[in-house]
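hey
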């Protein structure tokens, strides 16, 4: 039963008594006038009198064809699964690195690692070394990590821009050797009966793959595998447990450190980022990192090595298409991105350069169209047509000389050097006469000491 207060006007009363209202609302109603008590004289003169309508809701009848009120859906929530128990047989070591890019051919500039026991007031152990890269530092590394290379001509050194301090650096093989020795010594001195879980933080497995590639290249992986149980991506852990920062664009170490630790947390060096990651995980897990959760998200060393091997195989497949897309890769950023996308499309479909060449010799352009449309299915038609056009142009003129510059890339504003109409015009007769007339040719005087003294 509910009460509705409405104005006591004649049109409303007539509407309430009408048959149309009864058909729309299948319930009986009783009008009860109720006088307002303790009202002032101003309210009686200014505001109209009100009528209280007592509405008695009745179940719907089949004659009226009105459905009863729907029962609200009850949302049942399942209880959260219990947290796995802490495993005392493993030790957690944080690892971070500063790299020049995400590819395997990019270089590591700074290696940092941090370990501290789970007990209170335990002593921390850290590792931090810099590597001198062969190439120049990209602009994002200079801005984000305040590093630059000082080249004096005889030697090169790493320098901190903020502190104006020269950094001691080593080669990549020496830094990886020191890191492997530090891990082995850490396990031997502090927890000889435990194995190590290496925790890193990145959305893509690029830095950790560079580390395992370097360890395998320098033949250090066998010694490390004896003490290493596996690796865990801290980005995946925090994305599952930090519910207020679920967006991927906010799941960066800087945003997490500002949210959990404070805005003044230093994150420039690799060891500082490793320490910040340890503090965030410890806070999220309630003061102690749960190694049981880490073991559930463990990535084995064999899986990482398989990923490195798979990426190398894809790079070999992409390298066979270098003659087709070489001209596009020498242009601006947009043609280079487009060439990379089309090349990945060919590699993904399984088309080989040798197979396309043999097909073109037998069936010419029609054969290229058939093999491309047969292998590449479910893709954009414009992309497929562009691939066919590039392949036909290259295969029709395979011996065409490739434009090579002086070593520097052309300006980004003009990717292709086009000849203007003015340059195509032949020189006029007056210009030819001036060039051939010896009297109009400017004489060049050799600057000798005698001439300079006269001046």
């Amino acid at each position: 039963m509910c009460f509705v207060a409405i104005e006591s006007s004649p049109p409303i009363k007539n509407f309430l008594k009408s048959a149309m209202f009864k058909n729309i609302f299948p319930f009986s109603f009783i009008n009860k006038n109720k006088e307002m008590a303790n009202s002032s004289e101003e309210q009686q003169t200014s505001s109209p009198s009100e009528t209280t309508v007592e509405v008695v809701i009745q179940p719907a009848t089949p004659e009226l064809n009105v459905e009863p009120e729907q029962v609200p859906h009850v949302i049942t929530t399942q209880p959260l699964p219990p947290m796995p128990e802490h495993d005392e047989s493993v030790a957690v070591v944080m690892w971070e690195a500063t790299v020049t890019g995400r590819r395997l051919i990019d270089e590591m500039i700074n290696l940092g690692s941090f370990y501290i026991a789970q007990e209170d007031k335990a002593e921390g152990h850290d590792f931090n070394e810099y590597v001198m890269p062969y190439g120049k530092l990209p602009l994002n590394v200079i801005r984000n990590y305040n590093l630059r290379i000082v080249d004096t001509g005889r030697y090169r050194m790493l320098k901190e821009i903020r502190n104006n301090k020269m950094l001691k650096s080593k080669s990549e093989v020496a830094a990886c050797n020191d890191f492997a020795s530090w891990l082995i010594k850490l396990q031997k001195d502090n927890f000889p009966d435990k194995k190590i879980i290496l925790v890193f933080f990145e959305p893509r497995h690029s830095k950790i793959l560079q580390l395992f590639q370097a360890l395998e290249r320098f033949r250090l992986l066998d010694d490390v595998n004896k003490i290493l149980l596996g690796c865990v991506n801290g980005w995946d852990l925090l994305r599952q447990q930090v519910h207020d920062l679920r967006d991927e664009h906010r799941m960066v170490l800087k945003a997490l450190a500002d949210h959990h630790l404070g805005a003044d947390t230093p994150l420039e060096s690799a060891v500082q980022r490793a320490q910040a990651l340890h503090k965030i995980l410890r806070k999220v897990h309630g003061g102690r990192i749960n190694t049981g959760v880490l073991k559930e998200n463990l990535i084995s060393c064999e899986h990482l090595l398989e990923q490195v091997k798979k990426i190398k195989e894809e790079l070999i497949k992409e390298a066979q298409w270098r003659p087709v897309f070489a001209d596009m890769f020498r242009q601006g950023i947009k043609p280079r991105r487009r060439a990379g996308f089309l090349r990945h499309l060919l590699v993904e479909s399984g088309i080989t350069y040798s197979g396309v060449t043999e097909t073109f010799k037998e069936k010419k352009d029609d054969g290229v169209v058939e093999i491309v449309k047969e292998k590449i299915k479910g893709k954009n038609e414009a992309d497929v047509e562009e691939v066919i056009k590039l392949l036909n142009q290259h295969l029709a003129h395979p011996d065409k000389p490739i434009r090579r510059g002086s070593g520097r890339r052309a300006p980004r504003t003009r990717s292709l050097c086009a000849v203007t109409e003015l340059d195509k015009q032949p020189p006029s007769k007056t210009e030819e006469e001036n060039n051939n007339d010896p009297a109009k040719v400017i004489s060049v005087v050799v600057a000798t000491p005698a001439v300079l003294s006269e001046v």
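The chain has a mean pLDDT of 76. The first helix runs from residue 10 to 17.
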